[in-house]
Design brief:
Strand content: 15-25%
Strand order of the largest sheet: 6-7-8-3-9-10-12-11
Number of strands: 12
Helix content: 25-40%
Structural class: alpha/beta
Distance between the termini: 29 Å
Shape: globular
Order of helices and strands: EEEHEEHEHHHHHEHEHEEHHEE
Number of helices: 11
């Protein structure tokens, strides 16, 4: 049997999330379609504000007032998490079957409780362990994520640990119940390059050991090239391109994806300066009716004022563009694959 099952473990269909603000309604997600299979690693890539973290929070059932899910569906193993008794089911699987690693461990961990007690709480709440059982399991988890001297570390508070150590604690909490899906939301934010590589290597090792499915939320294409099998590119609350990682780097179809790859530094190409995508993403208070990337796209034309569907471009790849695969940036080759992080 292949490591990746044919049946999707998680399916997100036309998902819409809105937030009420004093300025008006922010349309955070505008019809997101996404799926991941067992044993698969999917990268969710895009600029800040594109909707990556909101997608993760929606899957985890963490969209609270002033936010709301305004449409679409989320299915876990074929069963809706939004309709019927779905909300109850979403609460039951959160932390046990689906786990989330947050961006900033310092704000996610309770500064007044030892890390051993915080990991132990997860085990007691979801698995019904006694304090004694949880204490033993906590030490095993700390050792599994590469934290030295587990008994001493378990008795410490978050501020007594380095940034890399705190991120490892977050990973230990996430895998405590041996979930089937791990969502890592920018797990290497604010870490130096060496520690980033260690954390990513740890996640990859745990995935292989525990047979996890992983959604890696990142803006770093180097990370994607090194770890992920498939990529979904987000822009202005929508998925604009999906495909196998190798294919996407070799022949990106959407102009936005081409621009992201074009602006990524490479070790084998010495440029005096990086070339960025001009302009800024549109306001989601009043999202455009057509292609959201149109104002920044060098090959935009009249029909781009109408929203393009996410359509198949070639085997295993889709793009929401009226002119898919046409080179949009001619000064740098579209096939400029970034060097993977190692």
């Amino acid at each position: 049997m292949d490591a990746i099952s044919e049946m999707p473990l998680l399916e997100v269909e036309r998902l819409q999330v809105e937030f009420d603000t004093r300025a008006g309604i922010v349309h955070g997600l505008r019809g997101v379609d996404l799926s991941i299979r067992r044993g698969e690693t999917l990268a969710l890539v895009g600029e800040s504000g594109s909707g990556k973290s909101v997608t993760a929070q929606a899957v985890m059932g963490l969209i609270d007032v002033p936010g709301r899910i305004a449409g679409g569906d989320i299915r876990w193993k074929g069963q809706s998490l939004l309709k019927g008794d779905g909300p109850r089911r979403a609460k039951d699987i959160r932390g046990k079957e689906v786990a989330l690693i947050f961006q900033d461990p310092m704000t996610s961990l309770n500064p007044l409780i030892t890390i051993g007690a915080q990991i132990g709480e997860v085990l007691q709440r979801h698995l019904g362990m006694t304090k004694a059982q949880a204490r033993i399991r906590v030490l095993e988890l700390l050792e599994a994520v590469g934290i030295p001297a587990p008994p001493r570390r378990a008795a410490q508070y978050p501020h007594e640990l380095s940034g890399g150590m705190r991120q490892r604690v977050m990973i230990a909490m996430a895998i405590a119940c041996e979930p089937q899906l791990l969502i890592a939301d920018e797990p290497t934010t604010a870490l130096d390059v060496t520690i980033q590589a260690q954390v990513l290597e740890l996640i990859a090792g745990l995935q292989e050991t525990l047979k996890l499915s992983v959604i890696l939320i990142t803006h770093d294409l180097g990370v994607v090239a090194g770890l992920c099998q498939r990529v979904a590119v987000m822009y202005a609350g929508r998925i604009v391109e999906t495909g196998l990682a190798d294919d996407l780097f070799e022949r990106p179809s959407h102009p936005y994806t081409q621009g992201l790859i074009r602006s990524t530094p490479r070790l084998d190409d010495r440029l005096e300066r990086l070339v960025s995508i001009e302009g800024a993403p549109p306001s989601l208070l009043a999202p455009p009716r057509g292609c959201a990337f149109e104002p920044r796209c060098p090959i935009a034309e009249a029909r781009c004022g109408t929203e393009p569907p996410l359509a198949i471009v070639h085997a295993g790849a889709s793009a929401a563009c009226w002119k898919p695969s046409q080179p949009a940036w001619r000064d740098v080759p579209a096939s400029a694959e970034p060097a993977p992080v190692s």
